[in-house]
Every structure is written in C-alpha cells, then in structure tokens.
Design a protein that fits this description.
The chain is mostly beta strands. The protein has a domain at 25-72 and 84-124: Immunoglobulin-like (Sandwich), CATH 2.60.40. Helix content is 0%, strand content 36%. It has a 5-stranded mixed sheet with strand order 1-2-7-6-5, with no helix packed on it. A 4-stranded antiparallel sheet has the order 3-4-9-8, with no helix packed on it. Strand 3 and strand 4 (40-46) form a beta hairpin. The chain is elongated, with a radius of gyration of 19 Å. It starts with 11 loop residues before the first strand and ends in a 16-residue tail after the last strand.
C-alpha cells in the first residue's frame, strides 16, 4: 500500500458503486487510518455506535470487506433541541496485496473504532543480514 495521509473531519455518505442493502437509511464510508510496519498493516476504522457483534468483516480473493450495522436508537423528537449527528450503517472495501497472510487476520472493535490487524507473510518481511568480518 502506498502512504497517503488525509485529514478530513466528517464522515461521508457512500457514493458510487456499493452492494445493494436491504435495510433502509443512510450508509456511510467509515474514515480510516492505515499504518504499515515491517510485520503488518493495521487499519483503524471509525465506526461510532457499532457493537462488535454488529460488524461483518471478511476477506476473500484479495478484498477486505467491512460492513457494520448501527442500532437506531434515537431520542424522543420532542426533547431533541439540535439534530446534527446522523445515524447510519457503514460499508467499505479494500484491495489487499497478496503479501498479507489471510489466515492470521484479526480484528477488535472498541470505543467506536474497528482495529484490523493484517499480518504480512514471512517471505515479504524485511530481514536484517549479519555481516561477518574477514580473516
């Protein structure tokens, strides 16, 4: 993956091509940070309001697909003074290089952030080579 940094403060509605959903309401593209180390890629996806059991994350044929459902618990409209936060489900897909060991992918979801660990296969990890001195 190439390094790309963006600083955008809002969540975006899903635009363009996406699988059709059977659940009404808005869908958003979660904002992500992707960090690369020698051992793995780590994806941090903002999914506010999502519980771990409501995340569908799967990897198939080089694509990591994230779908997350948000429980729609809105306050009583009569007591609502301001309504700026929009509730909706999340979906996003990533093309993943074959250097990722799919059998070791792990994920956790806490405090509105989904963290996905994508370990690299051993063959593509950088390796320090020891240099011996001559006689």
């Amino acid at each position: 993956m190439t390094e790309q940094v963006s600083n955008v403060a809002t969540k975006d509605p899903v635009n363009g091509h996406r699988p059709e959903g059977t659940r009404g309401g808005p869908h958003f593209t979660p904002r992500v940070d992707i960090v690369e180390t020698d051992k793995e890629l780590t994806v941090f996806a903002d999914v506010p309001g999502v519980r771990p059991e409501d995340v569908d994350l799967h990897y198939e044929k080089g694509e990591l697909v994230l779908r997350a459902r948000v429980a729609r618990e809105l306050p009583d409209k009569q007591s609502l003074l301001t309504h700026e936060y929009q509730v909706g489900d999340f979906s996003r897909a990533f093309s993943i290089h074959e250097s990722i060991d799919a059998s070791r992918i792990e994920a956790e979801c806490k405090n509105g952030v989904l963290i996905v660990h994508l370990p690299k296969v051993e063959a593509v990890r950088p390796r320090q080579i020891t240099i011996r001195g001559g006689a």
